[in-house]
Write a structure and sequence with these properties.
heterodimer; A: 112 residues; mainly beta; 7-stranded mixed β-sheet; 4-stranded antiparallel β-sheet; 11 strands; B: mainly beta; 6-stranded mixed β-sheet; globular
């Protein structure tokens, strides 16, 4: 069966520090991968999606970047965090032939 | 940007009653919709989906209705239980690879 791993669960970082959140998927190959951000009490905003290794599409201009160095690995990064980067970050995947979107457990990021 | 919205931010129902959560979408090209349940501090969980060539789909205690004429989607939960308390999101799939979410409805189930 397929599983998605996302870590860390919580993270507190100072303004101006770098960020690296990692997400891996098991039990499937060539998944579509996604990063979403959720502000407190709000909906999910699509940040990035990837249909293959090295293929990244950005939805909104922002202080973050994404990379996909391996088929089942998706990384969210920032060189210098801003206060506005705080939020709940969710990684998700969808199968190549299955449109259902499955989410990881999320990372609560607090930038102070 | 997102084109999916919800009519009510919070819905309170009595345990055992039926719940109806509504969602409006604006992109007529959307051909696939999903309802998700999100408990506090967790990632959203898939509940049920429906394609645009269907009007209704039923699962275990849940039914999704799609009205393409008015671009409206609803989730019906039968015999609501305390464990159903959560935030519910509808999401639409545009261009296969992109999913856009509404702002969510918080369901409170009163014992």
């Amino acid at each position: 069966s397929q599983t998605i791993h996302q870590w860390p669960a919580t993270l507190v970082q100072p303004v101006g520090s770098p960020l690296s959140l990692e997400c891996t998927v098991e039990g499937t190959s060539n998944p579509n991968l996604y990063w979403y951000r959720q502000a407190a009490g709000r909906g999910l905003q699509l940040l990035f999606y990837s249909v293959g290794i090295g293929q990244i599409s950005s939805e909104v201009p922002q202080n973050l970047s994404a990379s996909r160095p391996q088929d089942r690995q998706f990384i969210l990064s920032s060189k210098k965090l801003l206060l506005s980067d705080s939020g709940f970050y969710l990684c998700a995947w969808a199968g190549e032939d299955d449109e259902k979107l499955f989410f990881g457990s999320g990372t609560q990021l607090s930038v102070l | 940007g997102e084109s999916v919205g919800l009519h009510l931010p919070t819905l309170s129902v009595q345990e055992g009653d039926n719940s109806i959560i509504n969602c409006a979408y604006s992109n007529s090209a959307s051909d696939y919709f999903i309802w998700y349940k999100q408990e506090s501090g967790k990632g959203p969980q898939f509940i049920i989906d429906i394609r645009s060539n269907m009007d209704k789909r039923q699962g275990q205690r849940v039914t999704v209705l799609l009205n393409k004429t008015v671009k409206h989607l609803s989730l019906q939960i039968a015999a609501t239980q305390p464990g159903d308390s959560a935030v519910y999101f509808c999401a639409e799939n545009i261009n296969f690879n992109k999913f856009y979410f509404g702002s969510g409805t918080k369901l409170n189930v009163k014992p």
